[in-house]
Amino acid sequence: MTSRLNPYISFDGQARQALEFYQGVFGGDLRLHTFGEYGAPESVDPNKIMHGQLEADNGFTLMGADTPPGTEHEPGNNISISLSGDDADLLRGYWAKLSGGGTVTVPLEKQMWGDEFGMCMDRFGIAWMVNIGQPPA
């Protein structure tokens, strides 16, 4: 898998409906994963979307999720830029540069779904997410 850069939108409980709407607009394959699939704590609605990804036939990729409880959701500030792929060295290098001088909100480390993941705000106030997947077998 090559590395990709795409928008990641946070929703206030309507991620499923929004991503299904965008699938109707752009077509393509929509994959939705709920918090319940990954053993979320009781404070999180297990049916809410932890991660959704739409891959349209024209190459567009759009990701999104419901904002978990305790995380501020503010329309207008609910979009991050996502970097993902399986080239761990390349993505860790991007992470180091993006988070340097910024604020790390989620350290880049192994997560419950098996990938390395981190979130940061760069020194210009732009939110970034980095996900390092496992290389294909």
TrEMBL record:
Q: Which residues form the PhnB-like domain?
A: 6-130
Q: Which residues form a coiled coil?
A: none
Q: Which InterPro entries match?
A: Glyas_Bleomycin-R_OHBP_Dase, PhnB-like
> Which top-rank group of organisms is this from?
Bacteria
Q: Which Pfam families does the record cross-reference, listed alphabetically?
A: 3-dmu-9_3-mt
Protein name, per record? VOC family protein
Species in which this protein is naturally found: Phytohabitans rumicis
Q: Which gene encodes it?
A: phnB_1
